[in-house]
Design brief:
It contains four helices and five strands. With about 180 residues, the chain is of the alpha+beta class. The strands form two sheets. A three-stranded antiparallel β-sheet has the order 3-4-5, covered by helices on one side.
């Protein structure tokens, strides 16, 4: 059991001569994964059976093997049928990740970080956990001091941009050659 936990936490498995066929790409995630924010905050469970996984060829270096092996993992989560996520978190998740949601309402997360399919799938699940964490945290309204600092910074940036434009314009004027008519 200890050896199994070591390999699980390291994220890699020992190389053995036995080759086992993987029927379901999410076999290592059979149990529901818990997403824990804080000790007082509620946990959001990610049911693995609601995720669909697709593998395709990864890009980048890797020699001839990269053209033969499908290691890039693409995990899709249908937001409309994800009733295990509260509605306000689902809408915020869709708003924050507009470029990752397709027209069918699926959140698409891909990973090609490693050359092992299972590690790329776990990376995708970690990304989904991070997105859920970001969508479930409430941002506090800015204080009056923060608003004042922001307005001051915007005004200073405008002034710097205008002074840069004036400097650039005067440089261009100095380069011009004036023709004197007789």
């Amino acid at each position: 059991m200890w050896l199994y936990l070591c390999y699980y936490h390291l994220g890699r498995w020992p190389a053995t001569g036995l080759v086992r066929p993987v029927l379901n790409p999410l076999n290592q995630f059979r149990s529901r994964l818990l997403h824990k924010k804080d000790e007082g905050a509620p946990t959001i469970e990610i049911p693995i059976d609601k995720l669909s996984v697709k593998f395709c060829r990864s890009s980048g270096p890797g020699g001839q093997n990269v053209n033969k092996v499908n290691t890039k993992a693409e995990v899709r989560l249908e937001l409309s049928s994800a009733h295990w996520i509260p509605a306000y978190i689902r809408t915020r998740l869709a708003e924050q990740n507009v470029n990752r949601v397709n027209t069918a309402g699926e959140l698409i997360v891909s990973s090609e970080r490693t050359r092992i399919q299972s590690q790329n799938v776990s990376d995708c699940v970690k990304k989904i956990r991070h997105m859920l964490d970001r969508a479930s945290t409430e941002r506090s309204a800015p204080s009056p001091e923060q608003r004042q600092k922001h307005a001051f910074r915007l005004e200073r940036a405008k002034m710097e941009r205008k002074s840069d434009k004036m400097r650039h314009s005067s440089k261009k004027v100095q380069r011009k050659t004036f023709l004197v008519e007789d």
